[in-house]
Amino acid sequence: MPLFTKDLLGSLLFLIIMCFVINFTLRFFEKNLKLKKLIHTILRGISIIWCTWFGVHLNSSIFLDLSQIPFILLCLIERPTIGILMLVFTILSRLILIGEIGVYATIITFSILTVAIFIIRPYFLKGNILQKFLICIMLSFTFSILMIISLIFLNNLQLKEVPIVYLLIPALCIGLIVFISDFADDYFHIKKQIIKAEKLQVVSHLAASFGHELRNPICVSKGFLQLLLEKEVSLEKRLEYARTALDELDHAESVIKDYLTFAKPQVVTKQTLDLQDEVKKAVEIVSAMANMNNIQIKFTKPTVITNRGMVEGERNYLHQCLLNILKNGIEAMPKGGILSVEIFALEHIIGVRISDTGIGMSKDQIKHLGEPYFSLKQKGTGLGMMAVFNIVKSMKGQVKVESELGKGTAFSLLFPCPSSVLKEEKIG
To answer: Would you say residue 355 has pLDDT above 90?
Structure first.
């Protein structure tokens, strides 16, 4: 392969790599258009310098490169002011890097190209992928032909000295880059639409679930309150109706509480808590419920535990997290069973494992845990488990779930040791 072709293909490879770099880099600056334009201009400028530096000397007075490709792409996308600045930058960079070789041909050719780009730019911006492809190829061919003509008249270039690849490689390269850029734009647009659709789906499910969960207790309460207005109702019945209405309102309040926890999962007031004490309190709260359902609670305390038994979080949220898992474990054993609670300590990690001998879950069901509308309970909303995941995450912890159908489920909550405790241990 001739040296000229090798050098052009090397520049071609660099331009394709830069195409991917530019398309992915600019996605991080969608909200700051000025910074996005600046970065785009800088990256194209780097491409121009690279192509100029690795251009080819046909002889002592003839120099050819692929700097027109990033120049065309930048001027077509950005406003004319940037195009004029880039024209000056391109001419100066050639003067600095290769001296006065073909400088007049460069000035004439790039100036004519800039005017042509400004004229055709509106059609490029409004065009489809095929139209953009043809416009870029046309501009590339136009530039190459203009450069050859200028060098023939100004630098005595012989037409037979010009390799045919100088016409073909730039056109193919700029066409390929246009297709890659368009593909990247479509990819990110589709990805953004999918994320938006998923968010809307979650919101719609939340709204439907919230409305359904509140409508039932409110309707029941309304019905019993209307019965209280009947004169024939005895005092005993009135008390029964009032209790039922209050129970339903308590249920509505718990639903609202779950939604508020989901809406505000972050830990607001951080405290250093003793995980063993907090777990013990949560077990004591659910012990009566466990006894009523013929469930035995086995609470295993670690034999040796140091200051790493401490975790950092908000006490009320941690209680709610533990109670949600404990209650779920009890409800998963309608015929009774064993609810095991174990605290363990690893290096820089303190954890609690809560396991039951209930109905268990399939792998597919485990994947959906934490979604706001997924629940294994007949009247569940899934928000309780979602609150568990959000609370543990806000405490910089992890939730690990192991389950087998017919054998039971185990939840492991892993929390990092607070930095203040680690500092104390190092000092000690």
So the answer is: yes
Bridge partner residues of 59 (DSSP): 62
Contact assessment for residue 241 and residue 227, using Cβ atoms and an 8 Å cutoff = yes
Domain count along the chain: 3
Q: What does DSSP assign to residue 297?
A: E
Rounded to whole angstroms, how far apart are CA atoms 403 and 371? Answer: 17
Tens digits of per-residue pLDDT, 103-157? 888 888 899 999 999 999 999 888 888 888 899 999 988 888 888 888 777 777 6
- For tokens 């190092």, the residue is 426
Question: Which secondary-structure segment (H or E) carries 271?
Answer: strand 271-274
* E-state strands within 279-407: 295-300, 310-313, 337-346, 349-355, 398-404
Q: Which two tokens stand for residue 320?
A: 């709610």
Angle made by CA atoms 172, 88, 175, in degrees to the nearest 5: 10
Say which residues have a Cβ less than 8 Å from residue 109's Cβ, sequence separation at least 6: 143, 146, 147, 150
The residue from 245, 263, 281 where one domain ends is 263
Residues 90/75, Cβ–Cβ less than 8 Å: no
Which of these three, 263, 295, 320, is where a domain ends? 263
Q: How many whole angstroms separate alpha carbon 399 and alpha carbon 7?
A: 55
Least Cα distance to 406 among 326, 335, 325, 342 occurs for: 335
Nearest alpha-carbon partner for 363 in 325, 418, 403: 403
Total-model pTM: 0.53
Q: Which long-range contacts (CB under 8 A, 24 or more apart) does 391-395 make?
A: 391/261, 391/265, 391/267, 391/313, 391/317, 391/318, 391/320, 391/321, 392/321, 393/265, 394/265, 394/266, 394/267, 394/313, 394/317, 395/267, 395/311, 395/312, 395/313, 395/318
Determine the structural domain holding residue 67 and report its residue range: 3-195
- Cβ-based neighbour number of residue 136 at 10 Å: 24
